[in-house]
From TrEMBL:
Name used for this protein in its record: Unnamed protein product
InterPro entries reported for this sequence: Mss4, Mss4-like_sf, Mss4/transl-control_tumour
GO CC aspect terms: cytosol; membrane
Organism: Ambrosiozyma monospora (Yeast)
GO biological process, one term: protein transport
Length: 169
């Protein structure tokens, strides 16, 4: 399976190729502020109501053919609550092989390396419940443990002649 930038007709850059056609992780978090792209309308971002079944592939930084990484994401000072405390984006993902649920603090967005549009995924740092709300100190200790997640649903998928049903099921 190969993921391609969804911006047509000009870009269509190859982002990454995977050996397996099955996603490695599913999004468990019900709401997020991350502006994941929707290939059906690559000029607008998905909204949180469409995020319940997003699929991701976990990859290493050097696995990508052409990817961009945003600057570090500062904690948001706005949230649904009236608190003035910075809000960190924490996503829960379920590993499709082990069914283990892991939490990742989103520290950067993944974008197309050619046209610089996105978000096509995110860079996250694994966090425990004790780390949530620890701010930058908790994250700096785990910089070497950054994980790269590309959102399959934010890219066009080249299945190499396979049917979509064979990959999804």
């Amino acid at each position: 399976m190969q993921l391609i930038c969804p911006f047509q007709p000009k870009c269509q850059t190859k982002i990454i190729k995977f050996e397996s056609d099955k996603p490695t992780h599913k999004l468990i978090t019900k709401e997020t502020t991350i502006p994941f792209l929707s290939p059906s309308n690559s000029n607008s971002n998905s909204n949180s109501s469409q995020l319940s079944n997003l699929s991701f592939h976990k990859a290493g930084m050097w696995d990508f053919d052409n990817i961009g990484v945003s600057r570090p994401i500062p904690p948001s000072s706005t949230s649904a609550s009236t608190s003035k405390e910075p809000v960190e984006e924490i996503l829960e993902l379920q590993d499709e092989q082990t069914t283990k649920i892991q939490k990742f603090k989103v520290v950067r967005y993944l974008t197309c390396g050619e046209c610089d549009r996105g978000a096509l995924g995110f860079v996250g740092v694994s966090v425990d419940d004790d780390d949530v709300g620890a701010g930058e100190e908790g994250t700096k200790q785990k910089v070497d443990e950054m994980a790269y997640f590309v959102c399959i649903d934010s890219c066009f998928v080249d299945l190499g002649g396979k049917k979509v049903e064979d990959v999804v099921n």
